[in-house]
């Protein structure tokens, strides 16, 4: 593809547990960007949130990483990034995106930043190897559902400068959700409107409101979650009695 931009799509979330919709987000975002822009999506990354995020019912990061690894066995291009879970505390999303961009810059874009190298305690993550071998620069963009975009308006939740950096410096790819209106949301925000060209809205026509909350509820009640979540993920959940499945 001439003049194409190479892109890493990074999704941040609890993934508690990862659902098929979390995996599908990557597929529809990549298709959309290929069809409508010159963005060539090479790698997808899922960054599970730190244990200290403290959301109710959050199982340990090590279990969520295992669940993501199992879920991602069905994907050839989406990987887990463990960096966020390995920090001492919760990391704001702008810093998570920035860290991954700097890692890519130092190893792929030829822009070496020694401070980033110091943080790579476990060597080079395997997904980076998919980005080498081309001179086109690589940009990391935040992939999210419209509910995450709309959470930007919750008073005191996100720092203004972080929102500005996420949309101004990196860019967002937003998947619509039932009941969301990201176009109206952008219209009502000066900062989002200013950076509108950097926000790609992907309309999910095949609406599917599976969420981790609903999956946890079904598990708790002993209801089936087959076809909402990968079989290997369900197996791990039962084997390790996560989400109160031992009560079944
Ligand atoms: N059905 C869905 N459609 C579009 N985006 C989704 C969907 N489910 C999750 N996402 C997106 O996936 C990312 C990670 O989400 P998260 O782990 O919070 O999932 P969730 O299912 O919404 O979780 P919970 O129900 O525990 O709040 C977020 O950007 C969220 O908007
Ligand atoms: O960076 C922030 O200020 C910020 C504020 C609120 C939420 N987030 C991130 O958004 C994600 C939300 O996940 P969840 O499961 O709470 O919907 C998670 O990765 C959080 O770290 C990030």
TrEMBL record:
Domain Cytidyltransferase-like, by residue range, is 10-217
Its localization reads: Mitochondrion
Keyword field contains ATP-binding: yes
Q: Name one GO molecular function term.
A: nicotinamide-nucleotide adenylyltransferase activity
Q: In which pathway does it act?
A: Cofactor biosynthesis; NAD(+) biosynthesis; deamido-NAD(+) from nicotinate D-ribonucleotide: step 1/1; Cofactor biosynthesis; NAD(+) biosynthesis; NAD(+) from nicotinamide D-ribonucleotide: step 1/1
Q: Which Pfam families match?
A: CTP_transf_like
List its EC numbers: 2.7.7.1, 2.7.7.18
Q: Which GO terms describe its biological process?
A: NAD+ biosynthetic process
Q: Which reaction does it catalyse?
A: beta-nicotinamide D-ribonucleotide + ATP + H(+) = diphosphate + NAD(+); nicotinate beta-D-ribonucleotide + ATP + H(+) = deamido-NAD(+) + diphosphate
Identify the keywords attached in UniProt to this record, alphabetized.
ATP-binding, Mitochondrion, NAD, Nucleotide-binding, Nucleotidyltransferase, Pyridine nucleotide biosynthesis, Transferase
First-listed, main subcellular location of the protein, grouped into a coarse class: mitochondrion
Cellular component, GO annotation: mitochondrial matrix
Cofactor(s) in the UniProt record: Mg(2+)
Tell whether Repressor is among the UniProt keywords: no
Q: Which family does it belong to?
A: Belongs to the eukaryotic NMN adenylyltransferase family.
Subunit-level organization: Homotetramer.
Report the protein's function.
Catalyzes the formation of NAD(+) from nicotinamide mononucleotide (NMN) and ATP. Can also use the deamidated form; nicotinic acid mononucleotide (NaMN) as substrate with the same efficiency. Can use triazofurin monophosphate (TrMP) as substrate. Can also use GTP and ITP as nucleotide donors. Also catalyzes the reverse reaction, i.e. the pyrophosphorolytic cleavage of NAD(+). For the pyrophosphorolytic activity, can use NAD(+), NADH, NaAD, nicotinic acid adenine dinucleotide phosphate (NHD), nicotinamide guanine dinucleotide (NGD) as substrates.
Q: What is this protein called?
A: Nicotinamide-nucleotide adenylyltransferase
Which organism does this record belong to? Answer: Cherax quadricarinatus
List the top taxonomic levels of the source.
Eukaryota, Metazoa, Ecdysozoa, Arthropoda, Crustacea
């Amino acid at each position: 593809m001439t003049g194409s931009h190479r892109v890493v799509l990074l999704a941040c979330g609890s993934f508690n547990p990862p659902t098929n919709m979390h995996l599908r987000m990557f597929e529809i975002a990549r298709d959309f960007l290929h069809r409508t822009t010159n963005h060539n999506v090479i790698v997808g990354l899922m960054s599970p949130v730190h244990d200290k995020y403290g959301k109710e019912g959050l199982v340990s990061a090590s279990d969520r990483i295992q669940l993501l690894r199992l879920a991602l066995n069905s994907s050839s291009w989406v990987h887990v990034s463990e960096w966020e879970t390995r920090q001492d505390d919760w990391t704001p999303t702008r810093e998570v995106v920035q860290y991954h961009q700097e890692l890519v810059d130092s190893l792929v874009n030829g822009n070496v930043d020694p401070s980033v190298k110091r943080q790579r305690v476990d060597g080079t993550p395997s997904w980076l190897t998919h980005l080498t071998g081309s001179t086109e620069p690589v940009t990391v963009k935040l992939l999210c559902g419209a509910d995450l975009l709309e959470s930007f308006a919750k008073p005191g939740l996100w720092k203004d400068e972080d929102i500005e950096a996420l949309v101004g410096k990196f860019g967002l790819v937003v998947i619509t959700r039932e009941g969301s209106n990201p176009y109206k949301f952008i219209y009502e925000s000066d900062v989002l409107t200013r950076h509108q060209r950097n926000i790609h809205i992907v309309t999910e026509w095949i609406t599917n409101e599976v969420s981790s909350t609903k999956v946890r509820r079904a598990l708790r009640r002993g209801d089936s979650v087959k076809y909402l979540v990968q079989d290997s993920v369900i197996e791990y959940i039962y084997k390790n009695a996560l989400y109160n499945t031992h009560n079944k």
